Amino acid sequence: MSSDIDAQFDAAFEGLPDDPDDAAPEAAGEKAAPLDYSQYTDTPEGFHSGFVSFVGRPNTGKSTLTNALVGQKIAITADQPETTRHTIRGLVHREDAQVVVVDTPGLHRPRTLLGERLNEVVKETYADVDVIGLTIPADEKIGPGDRWILDNVRSIAPKTPIIGIVTKLDKASKDQVGAQLLALHELLSQEDPEAVVIPVSSKKGVQLDDLVQVIVEHLPEGPKFYPDDHITDERQEKRIEELIREAALSGLKAELPHSVAVQIDEMLPSRTREGVLDIHAIMYLERQGQKRIIEGKDGLRFRRIVGNARKEIMELLGQNVYLDLRIKVLKNWQSDAKSLGRLGF
Asked: Which of 231, 214, 244, 229 is nearest to 305 (CA)?
C-alpha cells in the first residue's frame, strides 16, 4: 500500500523541474518581465518612513490638516464635529522620507454604539503609529476635553512621541497663538520635557513643511511602504460615498448630521450616454422627520445636495457622472449592531 501511495505522489510531480532555476523557458523563448521592487529596496541611507496620526477633540482641524499635507482632498470636512467615521491613509513623499498620515475619527465620549466602535478604531490606530500629533485650535482654550484625550492617548501608547500642533493659526491673533503655544507646551512637558510644539495653518499653508520635518525627525529609518505616485489607499467607492455625505452635511444642525450615512449601491458605465458613469447610491437616515429636512421645501435642498456631490465626484474621477441618490430610513441605525454591520461599521 505504501508503494502505491509513493507512486501516486511521484506521478503528481512528474515533469516538474527539481529547481526553479532549471525551469523551462517561456513559450516562444520569452520570459516574463521581472517585477520592479527597486523603489522599495533602493532607498538611500538615512531614509525615514512611518505612520503619524493626529488626535484631538472633534473639529480641531485634523482632516483639513491631513488634506493639506497630502496635497489632495482625501478626507471630507464639515463644520459639524465627528465628521470622520473611518481610518484614512494619505501619503507625503519626500526625497529623504515617506510619511503615512492616518486620519481617524475624533476620540470622544460615545453616546451610541457607533461612537463606541469608532473609539475602538481610534485606539487601535494610536497603538500602531510611530508619532502622534495632538491638535489644539489656536482660538480655543485648552480644556478638560483636551486633557482627557491626552490621558487616553498616553495610556494607549505610552512610548509613542507626541507632537503639539496648534491649528487654525489664521483664526487667531499673534498674542493668542503665543499663549496657546505656551499652554500646550506646558501640558505636554509634564510627561516629556523635550516636547515639540508647532503652530500651523492648513488653509493658508503656513508651516506645513516645518511640521513634516518635525514628524520625519521622529520617524524610524526604513524603506518605503507605498509607490511614489500613491496618494491614498482609500477605495474609490468609499471616497465617493464620503463626498455625497459631505454634501449632505452642509448646513445641517443639531443631531441630524450624525444620522446621515451613505452607501454606493452600484456604479457602471451608462448604457445610453457614452463616457458617463452612472452612480446609484442610498442615503440612510434614522427617522422619517429627518427625510423631510434633507429634502427641504419642494425638494430644493436635496437637489442641491445631489448637484454639489456630483460636481465633487466628477472632479475626483475626471469624467461625467449621473448621480442617482435615494433616501431610506433605517431606524436608529447608530445604536443597532445589525444596521452598523450592514453599513460597514
From this structure: 244
